[in-house]
Write a structure and sequence with these properties.
The protein is α/β, with parallel strands linked by helices. Helix content is 47%, strand content 12%.
């Protein structure tokens, strides 16, 4: 199990906000969960997500960051069930190729390793609030995040792994190089491709590894790999449970 880095060695922290302890703890978290229940009620009755979220956020006086958390962790129950129906375990993919939503998975693990909050959604998937908006920089946690992914894939005895990175995101080329460098220490064959959007590339594919809602809705099957790693390989991650 990977120990969290100390405050002295963390350096830049992915997804960190100094007000998070207040926004996602104690009374604030209880209020946020009530807001999420109301949002869930509206979504399950066909209300559009944007309008429903705006209504709920105003009623509960949520911050933009709190609103983003429940937006990313809440979808109609029918959609969450459809995602679960397509989920497969890594053990089922022995000897098969997997396709990894590279930035999505690496960033989530970087956030957890940064001791920043990660959020467990209604569909059983962890998400973060990093909000990179097309800009990405390698940080001290990047190498460990890559190693955690590669080690788990090797333990699962997959035939090979294809990492897909969004080419328009800055430094995606540097991340490609870093993944390939780390892959030399593992037996699982690894390829990395820069694509216009990983979402589109994973649409309709089997054995996708992602936590992106769009990917989970459009792929044919997927693996919740980051949850496996987060709960079993990272010591004391900061988990905000919004799974209901």
């Amino acid at each position: 199990m990977t120990d969290p880095m100390s405050a002295e060695t963390l350096g830049p922290r992915r997804g960190f906000d100094p007000d998070d302890r207040q926004m996602f703890g104690g009374v604030s978290l209880a209020r946020l969960r009530e807001a999420q229940k109301d949002l869930q009620w509206l979504l399950d009755r066909g209300y559009a997500k944007v309008g429903a979220l705006d209504l709920v956020s105003r009623h509960y006086q949520l911050t933009a960051r709190q609103s983003m958390a429940i937006r990313r962790c809440t979808d109609p129950a029918s959609r969450c069930q459809a995602r679960r129906d397509k989920q497969v375990d890594l053990s089922e993919l022995k000897g098969r190729q997997v396709m990894v939503d590279g930035l999505n998975q690496i960033i989530l693990l970087e956030v957890a390793l940064s001791q920043s909050p990660v959020f467990l959604g209604r569909d059983g998937v962890y998400r973060d609030l990093a909000g990179l908006r097309g800009t990405y920089h390698l940080i001290p946690m990047t190498d460990l995040a890559i190693d955690l992914l590669l080690a788990r894939l090797e333990q699962g005895s997959v035939a090979s792994a294809l990492f897909l990175l969004d080419a328009p995101v800055s430094n995606s080329g540097r991340l490609k190089t870093r993944i390939l460098e780390h892959a030399l220490s593992f037996e699982t064959p690894v390829e990395v491709e820069l694509v216009r959007t990983a979402d589109a590339a994973l649409s309709g594919q089997e054995n996708s590894i992602s936590g992106d809602s769009i990917v989970l809705d459009r792929c044919r099957s997927w693996v919740n790999l980051a949850r496996d790693i987060l709960e079993n390989q990272i010591r004391e991650p900061w988990i905000v449970d919004l799974s209901g």
